[in-house]
Amino acid sequence: MRLSLVFSAALRESRGARGRLLFFVLCLALGVAAVTGVSALVASIESVLRSQSQELLGADISVDARRPIPESIDGYFDFGEKAERVDVRELATLVAAGGKTRLVELKAIEGSFPFYGSIGLEPRGVLGALLTDSKCAVAKDMLVECDLKVGDSLKLGGAQFEIVAAVLDEPGRLDMAFTLGPRVFVSLDGLARTKLEGFGSRTRYKALYRLPRDPGERVLRAARERLDNEVDDAPYFRVESHRDAQPALRRSLERFESFLGLVALLSLVLGGTGVAQIVRAWIAARTQGVAVLRAIGFRPREVLAMYLGHVALLALVGSAIGATAGSLLPFLVPIVAPELVPDGHQILWEVAPFAKGIALGLGIALVFSVPPLIAIWRVAPVRVLRNDVEPLPAPRIVTVAAALVLAGGVFAAAFAQARDPLYAVSFTGGLAVLAGLLVLAARGLVWCASRLPREGLNPYLRHGVAALARPGIGVTGATVALGLGVLVVSSMVLIDTRLTERLRTALPPDAPSVFLLDVQPNQWDGVAAKLRGMGAPEPRSVPVLTARMSAIDGVDVKELSQKRPDDSGVGRRRWVLTREQRITWMRELTPDNKLIDGALWSDPEHLEVSLEEKFAEDLGVGLGSRIEFDVQGRRVELTVTSLRKVEWESFGINFFLVAEPGALDDAPHFRLAAARLEPEAELQLQSALADEFPNVTPIRVRPILDKILNVVSKLALGVRVLGLFTILTGLVILGGVASSTALQRSREVALLKTLGLTRLGVMRLFFVEYALVGLVAGLIGSVAGFVLSALFLERVVDTAPQLPWLALPLAALAVAILSAACGLAASTRALRSRPIESLRG
Amino acid sequence: MLSCHQLTKRLASGGHELVVLDHVDLQIGRGEFAAILGPSGSGKSTLLGLLAGLDRPSSGEVHLDGERIDNLDEDALSLLRRRKVGFVFQSFQLLSNLTALENVLLPLELAGATDARVRARDLLEQVGLGERTHHYPAQLSGGEQQRVALARAFAPRPKVLFADEPTGNLDAATGARVLELIADLREREGTTLVLVTHDREVARLAHKRIHLRAGRVERIEEGALA
Lengths: 841, 226
Prior knowledge:
The structure holds 2 protein chains of 2 kinds. Chain A is built from 28 helices and 21 strands. By secondary structure, chain A is an alpha+beta fold. Chain A folds into 4 domains: about 1-50 and about 250-420, no CATH class; about 55-245, no CATH class; about 435-445 and about 455-510 and about 700-840, no CATH class; about 540-675, no CATH class. In chain A, helix 15 packs across helix 17. Chain B is an alpha/beta fold. Chain B has one domain: P-loop containing nucleotide triphosphate hydrolases (Rossmann fold, 3-Layer(aba) Sandwich), CATH 3.40.50.300. In chain B, helix 3 (about 100-110) packs across helix 4, helix 3 (about 100-110) packs parallel to helix 5 and helix 5 packs parallel to helix 6. Classes of the chains: A alpha+beta, B alpha/beta. Chains A and B meet through helix 1, helix 9 and helix 10 of A and helix 1, helix 2 and helix 3 of B.
């Protein structure tokens, strides 16, 4: 059959389909808007990253490490011509100015930093040229906060600096990353004067390179590989090119997209079930037409193509509306969450999410229409002669193919959203199981309704129950769709409320609220006295030593790390091996540590270490494994004799690695202290420490928790909005079912009116009927939602669920009212029909 | 052109089996006009459905244009109907969302006819609806709808036209006009016509009158009575 015939038939079929068009379009538009919205949002964040990638990095290549970066590696980035290099160092430290002290992120730069982009300064100027060894530039926020102005001076470590400019803007410092404090720039010479660098400080070293021209992806990768293989320290260097700027941010963006993308897909899939409902009702009303087409000589698959063409046409309209709405979402971001958009960034309309939305909408509509369209095969052509013909059995191959098309389509959509086959399979399978359970529950209820004795009931209720039991009006479908919507929303709300609540109360009443880094062993008594003086009940401290692993069970770590996946992939497992480890030692474990295997300090023959269970898993070691550490040049081998489970939520001082006392005590170390202070005392702590202990860095837990909470609540808002889309879709589906049975209904209404019922009476009948459907769907959906979230909270997040059981009946009631309203709204035409119509038949 | 041998159709009805057609043998020649007569429930429509390949017999054979059709699958039957068969029904069976012209075009487009539009317009002219091509079925009278159905039936030049009580829903005058049209078109196109009716007047024009009673052929009359 020619395509033009399919097309013209599709167009013709659209005539007089206003009601169908409306619900069909709405069903899809909501889901497509959700799907497009998520990817448009991600695309626009990505475009921010892309447009700024060189600026974000400030260079073409950046090498980043916790140790000085030797000049010997420069040669690896000479591609024909010599690459230009500048050095940057970063560390968190305290600054004292105007009688106040606060934690800042100090960045020491030289020469032409940054190579790309510019640091916004007030007064205008070039940063590298302004900074001499006694000058600094300070973030504008901090100047305001500490009541400082350009020309004032401040104290960093042991040196005074004059403030020569306010920093307004710095590329690469999106506010999405957590920062410890405002930025202060000094020159490398200035940093040397502060004497903050050196033993015990956590300086980040960066070498930035500017290349005369872009050598291309492949050459760069080859250079990296050579560096990895030839330079001893290479495992400790993180090399980034502007092509992969902000890898951590990109990774979280990807996860964000996968997760929200799947949640959005749920509402689209739900829209698909709505489409299926509408198509089912529509094809049922077209049985005679199909019979005529068959009699004229159309083969079933040709009729299918005609009807699919019509579906595609409607789907295109719905998807276009949804995709347009969704793709405009990023333009709302500057209004809702301005901190996510860097100043001056122009948000552009992206075509890719729009196209993806249309493709997904079209695909979902088509694959969901195929199963109900199997009805075409069941229409016997001989129906044109008699109405009482038994339907033909649909060929088995057709039913199987339809199911496969549906499952394959959902899988493909899930894969497009999550880009991970495992997620896609879980999504498709999980959805199938849930839908299956909901179908069973709905069928069970219909079964019960048909067997419920109705004699004693109020006539309205009797009619409503009878309507639930009436075969073939799509009650099951509507219940499943609405139930699925309720399930999604209720479980999202439950999970997110519980998690937010947990985060908010995450700081137990006796947990420390301040951590102090870099306390030298001989400073501890003084620091502890100061803390007690400020009201801290029991300041605690533990020794901390930093060391790298050099070998596991006799195998060199470098060799091990090369066998591991690169750390740009998931898991970052190579990093687990090569990073700087923090080790403490103690005689007895604190109460938030539980031994789960082995025994503490039980082997008199060897020096021992106790590992946190997940960390041991990441390392790939177990009891009896020997881990060799490089402790400032000295090799120490520790044997794993116990594994611990750590309750991290206690916010106590905890470590992956706890060594046996005596094993490492002599090595140079510092102490990590923790104390609980009242919020006001916390604010004064920085100034209190700055004079006597300038090297001690206090870190407050509360602001960090607040930042996490802020991000989580934004994510949760997104999930809730998307969840709302699913409920809306469910209601639209119910409306669609109500409206697609309008013809049948209007005869019924006319008959009821002939029998003497007023219009109000008919409305009451309908209200009860749709409310019952809603009640049932709400109940099934929220019970399933409760079960699902309880499972998720207990099994996945390891949190006691504590669900609000009262919400169950409330949710069901709310859905009942909503669904009654929707059902009535969609039945207005039927409600208007006059008694005389029942006589015409 | 069209024949059946020992054609039998049984239907399950409320737990027991009902024999609707009982070992029917028939032969209809090319270009012939055959009328099937009989009271309600005698199996007229069932026989028509079987001869036209709309339905399959319980046993027996049907041959249409030299091809055995009782054992064909659904797709093959569709193709057969598309190429060789036209229909006119008592209740017109036009597609309500298509205009008169589009209804006539449908089988032509399906057959991939290059002159579809010209042919469809021509046929609508012939049945006297040249001015109403863009009307929807609901905007046409019963007689007009049946004339559109006629145009649609003849459009792809079928070898056999099956008509099931084509005048059953029409008043006498309109019915007569429709019958005239059928006869005219049949003459012009050389189509074999099988017509089911319980109206003896209608059957008078037929070359062959097959009388059914309780699923069996009671008698066959040859020769037009006009």
